[in-house]
Amino acid sequence: MAANIEIYTWSTCPFCIRAKALLDKKQAEYQEYTIDGDDVEREKMAKRANGRRSLPQIFIKDQHIGGCDDLYELEDQGKLDQLLEV
């Protein structure tokens, strides 16, 4: 069983691709919500992400992690693996 991971993306967003690459490297399963041009879904995402509208927005165990840079910062600090554990 894996941690519940959700990531909001645009299909051609380089930061989204980079964030997914790190999750893939960690062999973490995630639910991706591709919201290209979908203003309604982006608004829902922004409400969950404390008003942040940039992409990607990442949630692990229903906790808002932030974007790509935030995910990589957790990795650099050695904290990401703990979050990915069940």
UniProtKB/TrEMBL annotation:
GO MF term set: glutathione disulfide oxidoreductase activity
PROSITE patterns, alphabetized: GLUTAREDOXIN_1, GLUTAREDOXIN_2
GO terms (BP aspect): cell redox homeostasis; cellular response to oxidative stress
Entry's Gene Ontology cellular component terms: cytoplasm
Domain of life, per lineage: Bacteria
Matching InterPro entries: GLR_AS (IPR011767), Glutaredoxin (IPR002109), Glutaredoxin_subgr (IPR014025), GRX_bact (IPR011900), Thioredoxin-like_sf (IPR036249)
Xref: PANTHER family: GLUTAREDOXIN 2, GLUTAREDOXIN-1-RELATED
Record-given protein name: Glutaredoxin
Gene giving rise to this polypeptide: grxC
